[in-house]
Amino acid sequence: MKERHIIGYTLLGAILAFLIIFLFTRDVEMPKNQAMPWQSYVNENQQTVVFDLTMGQSRLIDAARHFGTEIKASLFEDEGVEPELEVYFSNTKVGGISARIILNLLLDNQVIKVLSHNIDESMLMPSGVKNTTFTPAGERSMSGLKIKSLTFIPRANLEAGVIEQLFGKPDSVELAPEGVSYWLYPNKGLRIIVDDEQKEILEFSNQ
What we know:
By secondary structure, the protein is an alpha+beta fold. Helix content is 18%, strand content 38%. The strands form two sheets. It has a ten-stranded antiparallel sheet with strand order 7-8-4-5-6-9-13-12-11-10. The radius of gyration is 17 Å and the shape is globular.
């Protein structure tokens, strides 16, 4: 997920502190159908599995069974870059944790053609990226699309110390400007964007 994906979103404070929720649930046996973000792994086919969803294999309809059916889809198009179709679950809970979840779906020309007949609105963002949203019929047509990657944005800040306690120490850390760093967990198929000013962002994808 590129940083522009969170432009325009107002991240609200959590009702319960994210730290407290994690510390009180990490050792509790969860229902079989309820996985947690720190339980992600890479399977024998080198596919990342998180929340019982397999990147590159599971479909949007599978995610809807976990996160609900209230979604908003956007297609981002930029010159010289492959278009990206993202589906937002703006208000969901995983194991009692409130979060925003964004799925990046796999696209092909046939899918783009179908979506072009179900456009609700298109607008040019200040960055020059074209943002297209779709009618309910267009969004329903996405149900069989496979998930390319999953982004998990908790509503409360996740401190660096808690990240290490839950996920372990990263294999490597990449530093970026303005207090941002990227914590890499290849065995979990995970990159965590740690930001001094914004909410932390967990990105799960095939490596």
